[in-house]
Write a sequence for this structure.
């Protein structure tokens, strides 16, 4: 098994992240879905958390909330055998953090746009 060793960055594009994780298209689609599921599950079970607050930026999130959301996603990936046996766990965790960052940023942008539209309606 060959592992891409290029550093994973929070702002990597989806295509860059897919290449760095060596995931096929369908597997990367699953990876993205798992990120959305983990994000939504955490918000549903922790509606008053900072993670669920659209105004809290990534760097201001408590580490515990980031770790818990990452664990949810990691468990989904593991249950689906998304990564082959022996794949470096540290690499998986870096990829999870990058994808959750993207999912949360997209969610924030959507929520803010929604708030602006409702403000315009008033």
């Amino acid at each position: 098994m060959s592992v891409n060793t290029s550093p994973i960055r929070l702002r990597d594009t989806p295509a860059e992240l897919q290449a760095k994780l060596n995931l096929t298209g369908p597997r990367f689609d699953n990876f993205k879905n798992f990120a959305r599921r983990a994000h939504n599950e955490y918000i549903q079970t922790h509606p008053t958390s900072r993670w669920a607050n659209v105004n809290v930026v990534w760097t201001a999130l408590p580490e515990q909330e980031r770790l818990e959301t990452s664990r949810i996603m990691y468990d989904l990936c593991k249950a689906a055998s998304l990564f082959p046996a022996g794949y470096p766990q540290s690499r998986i965790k870096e990829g999870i953090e990058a994808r959750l960052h993207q999912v949360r940023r997209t969610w924030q942008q959507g929520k803010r746009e929604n708030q602006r539209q409702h403000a315009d309606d008033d």
Observations:
- The radius of gyration is 15 Å.
- The chain has one domain: 14-121.
